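fyi for ur records
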Amino acid sequence: MAVDDSWLHPVHDDLVAHLKHLWDIRPVMAALTIATDAEFAELCFKRRWFRHSLKLFEALAHRQDLAIQERRIHLNFHREKYRRMLLARDPGAAAIQLEIEEGGSELGEACDVLGDAWNDIGATLAVLGMHREAEQAYARANEHYNGYPYAFDNLATLYARTGNYASAWCAWNGARWRYEDMATVAYQRKWPGHFVAQGELLREVFGDLDAAAAAYRQGIDLMDGQPWYIPYVGLFKIAVERRDEVGGIGIALETRSAFVTAVENTSAYLESQPDLDAVVAIGEMHLLMENYGAAEEIFLAARTFDSWCAEQIPTEYMRSAVPAVNLGVLCVRRQCNEVPGNDDASDRSLVNSQFVRALGFFTEAVRIDPEDLAARSNRAEVLLRLGRLDDAEREYRAILRTAPGNVDSLVGLAELYLERGSNGDQMMLQQAKVYLDDAIRCIDSGISSKRINGRGQAQILHLRGYTLAKLLMAERGPHAMGLASNALHDFRNAIVADPDLHVAQHAAERMKLAFGSSMPVRWFESYMPLAITALGVALVAFSTLWLVGCIPIYSNKSLTGSERVILSPPEFIAMVTMGFAIMIVGSYLPRILKLKMAGVEIEKSTMDNIDTVCLMSISRVKR
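which gave:
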């Protein structure tokens, strides 16, 4: 679907001219109101003038703090006056009580504004890399506004970006409950941004698509026709994620309708209020619809404009890594969709060229924002797909030093060691299993980088089952039964997590055909070599003990007596030789069985760890 995006460049030019004009008249803005100052600070934040917006937000918070103190003094004065009038039974006490109620309401609203200011300060500090100061600012925001959900959102995002996933999940859970507690108040006060932020949290963090769609629709109901793009983008992404479910035709129509609505509303929004995030949102929608040409054009325009601003305003402007990350994702998706599994030489060169381009974009994103773990994980994944295993391993290990619970890096290392162990190297395969065990442990214990359920969890389980099957092919000894049983267990759990994961279904069927449904491994593969070896050892020991007389053996020569049988040296040598021969047969039997047993060929599924940048970035949510 073609969309006219010729308006992008004029809008950007007008934006820069407007910002320069505001910068020129800044010295005469001291007399403006707090609200106008706040709008200018938010405008600077959206245009990525973070250092200047930080000064404005701090000045706003300082002035608002002084105003709150003054209101509290007046409120305390009126309360004391009301108390004295009640004691004196003055009839004017009712009027004073009304003033106290109004003053209390005004004080509460002033505290809310101060909470917004501290939230904005924390968001700006976080973008500037001052994480400890940002955490303190978010704490101040929650102090001034009890139950303030947006600061919890931003604090959780801050923790997740820096690899503190356990604290991130605590903050996200706190934000989720506060959103629900504030829903009635937000609907009464007509705060569409509240429900949009709730929808982003439910969709991107917790994966609750039904609740997220309901929150988005509540936000759209309260927008009164305002051209705000985020809820439409959210609904569009939900529709795309569900297009493979039952009733795919209706969901496909809903997806197309959501796409058209989202583009129209986003375009209208940008005409009145240009925003780099909104430009990227249009590109992401094209990316989801696999309109790669349109998506690439928009991302390149945003990246070029971003670079131009950084050159023109070097002291204030900070570039965004988002366009570069999305361009890298686009290259990977284009390869996966256009040339999947083709062995033609020209196609291979196209695959390599797309991965090389993606590597360049991800490297650029990491250079712009070195602390973005998602961009670094994407870069490591592309290095792995290009076969640069050593470089990929260094990147993965660097991420895990910062964030031990980063699931993408753990799974990436597992795939890396699987590649190294493709020739049957048991040490490499064992190391791959260790990383997959760590990934599943992080997911189960709740300290992982993200919530993984459904298809993602099924793929990890299948990958571990595949690793165990490869180990099974390398060893047919006493541990074979356990390996086969665990592999079959992983395949079955993968099917439960995602019934549509056909590679896991085929793997389970092959395991049952090779080893039987009741016993994962034939019993003689594990126990027969051990039993034969034990028989040989017993024969040697028996012969030795018989020779030295520790085991007396008697023979009946007549009805009246018996005679002790003595083992002769030739007989002893023959029995010992037979025992050693039996032990040799028992020790080599696993290899003999392995040569005669057919292997289990199981298909390996490739994990897709390439992530786009989520729209729920560190910023204030407009009510």
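The longest helix spans residues 50-87. thats all i got for now
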